[in-house]
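Inverse folding, one chain.
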């Protein structure tokens, strides 16, 4: 009995111990950013990110990837996953659906401005080889016609509080002009966070537009072969939605705040499987204008990983909710301290829960030594233990 008790205590301590973590590759002078991670059947991991001399204005930007082997417990050398020659490729997203098909979504930036993004995607069933890229069977573009974008824009502006900012009338006029412009409203939507597959089989791919600072859902009801658009998620500065489904079927989208202060994670709701959305509103959760990701865990708790300050990206936190986002009671930091600003930047988390219950996060890791992608593995118990006393 004593031995059993000791083993139980050891197991409990291990669950709350520091997470396993490593850089996927050594820091580089190259810009490495906006990663995405998935678990493959069998327990291996695949992560990708964009790599080049810059972002939308650098035409050498490509999508790179690396594999983590469950057998060797190590990451492979990075390899090329996608490239549109002569155009920047950015913000890739990986996803494995219930049929165990691997998806890669990413935008090519046509004219070096985010609002000229053209969404591309690929599907593979032959991706379990130990090295190198998958073999792709299907590739296409995702072209969207946002539903009711003019009406939704007017709904947003009708709720707008008076603003003393002298730029406000010009901003409102431009928003109306863009909403009515077919070309502008149909271009520029692109990815950042993981898709969500609903019980019906509907696939939702969260996207956003920097041209509007709106979110949107690309919707497929035929397993990813054809796509339609939802209504836009309108708000002042809400982009890069991350979607979680509640037990009652209501979808909750958490959005990065690119709007005016105070900077907060924004939230919007859908009761019709992602077709229509409420106007995005601020929560109490701080956000510096940086990407967040939220997922539902097997336990029923929700997990959010985000930068928990209003300015800067030096502090990256994981938070747990046991009431589907009404409150977030448990916090722990993956990097940094919100009270101690630094020049480091830890941001753009990609979050999954593996079949064994472990939580995996990859994120952009920028320090004076260079730029890399970091991978961290931890458990719910580790978050619930809280930050150690400083």
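Residues assigned per position:
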């Amino acid at each position: 009995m004593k031995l059993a008790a000791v083993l139980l205590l050891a197991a409990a301590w291990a669950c709350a111990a520091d997470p396993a973590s490593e850089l996927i590759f050594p820091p580089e002078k190259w810009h490495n950013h906006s990663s995405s991670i998935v678990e493959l059947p069998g327990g291996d991991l695949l992560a990708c990110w964009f790599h080049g001399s810059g972002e939308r204005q650098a035409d050498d930007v490509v999508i790179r990837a690396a594999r983590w082997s469950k057998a060797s417990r190590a990451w492979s050398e990075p390899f090329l996953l996608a490239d549109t020659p002569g155009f920047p490729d950015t913000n890739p997203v990986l996803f494995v659906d219930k049929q165990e098909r691997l998806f890669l979504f990413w935008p090519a930036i046509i004219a070096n401005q985010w609002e000229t993004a053209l969404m591309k995607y690929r599907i593979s069933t032959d991706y379990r080889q130990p090295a190198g890229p998958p073999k792709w069977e299907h590739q296409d573009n995702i072209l969207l016609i946002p539903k009711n974008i003019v009406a939704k824009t007017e709904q947003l502006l009708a709720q707008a509080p008076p603003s003393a900012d002298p730029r406000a009338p010009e901003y409102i006029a431009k928003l109306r002009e863009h909403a009515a412009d077919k070309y502008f409203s149909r271009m520029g939507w692109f990815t950042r966070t993981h898709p969500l597959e609903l019980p019906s089989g509907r696939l939702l791919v969260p996207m956003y537009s920097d041209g509007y600072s709106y979110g949107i859902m690309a919707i497929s009801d035929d397993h990813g072969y054809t796509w339609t658009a939802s209504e836009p998620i309108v708000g002042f500065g809400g982009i890069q939605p991350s979607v979680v489904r509640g037990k009652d079927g209501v979808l909750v989208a958490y959005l990065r705040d690119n709007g005016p202060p105070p900077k907060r994670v924004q939230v919007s709701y859908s009761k019709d499987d992602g077709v229509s959305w409420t106007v995005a509103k601020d929560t109490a959760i701080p956000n510096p204008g940086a990407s967040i990701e939220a997922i539902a865990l097997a336990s029923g708790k929700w997990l959010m990983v985000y930068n928990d300050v209003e300015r800067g990206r030096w502090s990256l936190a994981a938070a747990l909710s046991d009431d589907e986002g009404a409150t977030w009671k448990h916090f722990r930091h993956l990097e940094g301290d919100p009270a101690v600003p630094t020049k480091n930047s830890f941001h753009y988390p990609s979050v999954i829960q593996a079949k064994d219950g472990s939580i995996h996060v990859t994120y952009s890791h920028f320090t004076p030594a260079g730029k890399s992608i970091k991978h961290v593995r931890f458990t719910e118990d580790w978050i619930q233990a809280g930050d150690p006393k400083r």
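The longest helix spans residues 2-16. The radius of gyration is 21 Å.
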